[in-house]
Amino acid sequence: MTDHKKEGTLTIDSLESLRDTLRGFALERDWDQYHTPKNLSMALIAEAAELVEHFQWVDGNQSHLLEDKTRHSVEEELADILIYLVRISDKLDVDLYKAVARKIAINGRKYPAELVRGSAKKYTEYEL
Length: 128
Hints:
CATH architecture of the largest domain: Orthogonal Bundle
Number of domains: 2
Number of helices: 5
Radius of gyration: 18 Å
CATH class of the largest domain: Mainly Alpha
Distance between the termini: 52 Å
CATH topology of the largest domain: Helix Hairpins
Structural class: mainly alpha
CATH superfamily of the largest domain: MazG-like
């Protein structure tokens, strides 16, 4: 794992290659001992909170208009979130593709398009 030393030299083209890269990164640093699901989930939520800080007092309609400095910080927070998410799924042997496919199917049943189109209500507020 020497190709990641400089920013931008690492090629990651799938969740599997990201997972493998992150495994190696942690092993090289002897961090795997700290990467428990508990610790990783706590780190993930901390990074998610850092992401939220960028939008906390921004008008919702303007929240997609980011200054370059803020955009860079948001990209880094999103990357941190994905890193921790992939590490947790690796530690728990969760196939994220399958989990997402199952969840989309569940959400499709909870939120039928013809019933919920244009509404932000929770599924419990609809009569199915």
